[in-house]
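Incident log, structure service

09:12 report received: a user says their structure output differs between two submissions of the same chain.
09:20 pulled the input from the user's history:
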Amino acid sequence: MSDNVRTFTDEHTRSHNRSPEQSESTDTEETLRCPECDGQLATDTEHGETVCRDCGLVVEEDEIDHGPEWRAFDSNEKDQKSRVGAPTTNMMHDKGLSTNIGWQDKDAYGKSLSSRQRQKMQRLRTWNERFRTRDSKERNLKQALGEIDRMASALGLPDAVRETASVIYRRALDEDLLPGRSIEGVSTAALYAAARQAGTPRSLDELTGVSRVDKDEIARTYRYIARELNLEIQPADPEQYVPRFASDLDLSDEAERRARELLSTAKAQGVHSGKSPVGLAAAAIYAASLLTNQKVTQNQVSEVANISEVTIRNRYHELLEADEQQSVA
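09:34 re-ran on a clean worker, output below:
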């Protein structure tokens, strides 16, 4: 009798001294083991059961499936059946959290609405659009982000650049930097800064071609927001323009590599100081095409880079002279 009491007391003491983490881990181990043969359990998601791998005992059944009730066999079918919304994004003034009423005047079964229902839906769309912008600040943001998206599409900039430009514009709006400046000017300057930060720069002339403001206003606004927002933007590297120019001119990889070598030599000798990176990149592309026996005219390079042929000729001679000095040295 005393032995049984002593055994019970020892077990009670051990269980009392066991830490909560040890108790939890022990409980978890017990739930992952079969109660009959102590085998390993497996979850059958298709039938909603938990089964022992060794003896086949069904430990749990009719489990809740937290996934969708539909099945899809490719990405297109998955996108069509999915009923969740898009992720939040800074490229929309409400970050994509508002509701949009579709323009196809059809019901859930694809049937066309009656004329009365169509009029009702049109009124709902109108009021929904009004409620999406609650004040002048949101209307300002909506217009600016639309401008950024339009210009980025025209320039072929990726979504990451659009997102960064949207964040820069939001910061400028929050810090009250817009009074006295146009929405188009600040949005263009934000896109110019974002493109340079992402390593996919566009020249001021290219921005001017798609913007509704002139070149001087873009440059002036860019310097202002870069200074006020403390944007860390490195000077544009001519080599960043080379892949795009080479692609537009259908040049080979050899010509692109040669153009990069010419620019590297020019930077090592300080030839690039005080000169337009776009002009240097265009001249390097032209020189590389001649050195690799690929016929490209100065006029073609001028149209792609949006600079004059005189600039290409001047920078072209400077790059070749720097390359010759490097070869002699």
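09:41 both user submissions now match this output. Likely a transient worker issue. Closing.
09:42 reviewer note: The two ends are 102 Å apart (CA to CA). Residues 127 and 297 are 56 Å apart (CA to CA).
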